[in-house]
Amino acid sequence: MNISWILNLRGGCNVDMVKLIKKAGMQAMEQGAPVNILLGTVTQVNPLVISVDQKFPITGEFLYLTDNVRDYKTKLSFDNPSVKHVVKDYTMQDEEGTNYKIAFQDKAINDVTIYNGLKVGERVLLLRVQGGQKFVVLNRVVEA
């Protein structure tokens, strides 16, 4: 619907008023959507900068990073199927020809670092948080 046509029926309208009303309408539409999905490209890593459509750079203070796109530490344990869980007294001698190994009942838990940090040139999926000030960097994306 052309708003300027309606306003002209009422005795004329200032062009600035039409622009203001259109802008208000667009902002109302944008605020109705809780999140915008954007594609960006990492242009700098330290400090982190992501560019959207080569138009505006988003710096680190406006970004939330998921574990998919950042280095982080976690704990890791695993079971080794080649180790048979036979608990022996340490003074016992293994019989020749047996392949039994001593395994502890407590799992070994190790600290590990997952290196998922972004690299220059990678494309990422961004979610704009409602209000438009912050962005969540959800994951890397590639073209099919």
Description:
This protein is an alpha+beta fold. The protein folds into two domains: 1-32, no CATH class; 33-141, no CATH class. 17% of the residues lie in helices and 30% in strands. It contains two helices and eight strands. The strands form two sheets. Strands 3-2-1-7-8-4 form a six-stranded mixed sheet, with no helix packed on it. A hairpin with a 6-residue loop joins strand 7 and strand 8 (135-141). The two termini are 39 Å apart. It comes from Defluviitalea raffinosedens. InterPro entries: DUF2577. This is DUF2577 domain-containing protein.
What is the rounded Rg?
29 Å
Number of helices: 2
Domain count: the total is 2
In whole angstroms, the N-to-C terminal distance is 39 Å
Note the run of SSEs as H and E: HHEEEEEEEE
Largest sheet: 6 strands, mixed
Proportion of residues in helical segments: 10-25%
Q: Total strand count, please?
A: 8
Strand content: 25-35%
User: Runs with pLDDT <50, length 5+?
Assistant: 1-12
Q: How would you sum up the global shape?
A: elongated
User: What is the mean predicted local confidence, pLDDT?
Assistant: 75
Structural class designation? alpha+beta
InterPro entries: DUF2577
Protein name: DUF2577 domain-containing protein
